[in-house]
Amino acid sequence: MTSFGKSSGHVSVGGKGRTGFFQRLVMGPWFHGGWGRGVGESLGAVQFGSKTAEFYREQIELPFFQHFLKGKESGLPPKAYVFETGANQWRKYDS
Residue 59's closest CA among 32, 84, 35? Predict the structure, then answer.
């Protein structure tokens, strides 16, 4: 896989064998910051068939904040959560 930009930074940091760091990768179908406003049903003319931004905020971001800011034992996301366009579904990767 060839990776550029922010995702290549995640790959390079994660591959250094560092311990003690909590690292997760989330890749959604949005422009920068698009997960924070709106519902995320589309990007331009491309329709995703679901409310991807709402899913991110409720199923990924909220449990993360509840765990790290409130000390709640909520389910943390897998190592990678990636929205697959075309199939229009979220994929989880644990390694």
Answer: 35
- Give the total residue count for the chain: 95
DSSP output for 80-93: EEEEETTTTEEEEE
The predicted-structure confidence for 62-91, as pLDDT tens digits, reads as follows: 988 998 899 888 777 789 999 999 999 999
* In contact, 38 and 56? CB cutoff 8 Å: no
Q: Which residue type is seen at 39? A: V
Cα distances (angstroms) measured from residue 34 to each of 7, 86, 89: 17, 19, 17
pTM for the predicted model, two decimal places: 0.74
Looking at residue 58, what DSSP letter applies?
Answer: I
Q: In this structure, are strands 80-84 and 25-27 parallel, antiparallel, or unpaired?
A: parallel
Q: Are 49 and 70 in contact, with CB atoms under 8 Å apart?
A: no
